[in-house]
Specification:
CATH class: Mainly Alpha
Largest sheet: 3 strands, antiparallel
Order of helices and strands: HHHHHEEE
Radius of gyration: 12 Å
Helix content: 55-70%
CATH topology: 434 Repressor (Amino-terminal Domain)
Length: 99
């Protein structure tokens, strides 16, 4: 899932968002964000959804770009109650987090 780290790194660069700012909004250690951005560790599926949510809070266009870079232009976003489901070809992530 190194694609998440590459997409995140690109989005942070494009929108001038610091790793620290993302970490604060996500309420995680900055070292976790550093690990994802530098492909030291892959964020779990539910964390990818939390990354998108945090980016949306910081800069909505950044969240859209992250989705586009990670899932591609064919990404489908399905909202159902408090559940969010991203589907793109054979990748699927489901989260029960409030969006």
């Amino acid at each position: 899932m190194a694609k998440a780290g590459k997409a995140l790194k690109r989005v942070l660069e494009i929108y001038g968002i610091t790793q620290n700012r993302l970490a604060v909004v996500m309420e995680v250690n900055r070292s976790s964000v550093f690990g994802w951005v530098n492909e030291v560790a892959d964020p779990p599926g539910d964390t990818v959804v939390k990354i998108r949510k945090a980016l949306r809070e910081i800069e909505p266009a950044a969240a859209e770009e992250f989705v586009k870079l990670f899932w591609g232009d064919t990404a489908i976003l399905i909202l159902k109650k408090n559940q969010i489901k991203f589907s793109c070809l054979n990748r699927e992530i489901v989260s029960n987090h409030d969006f």
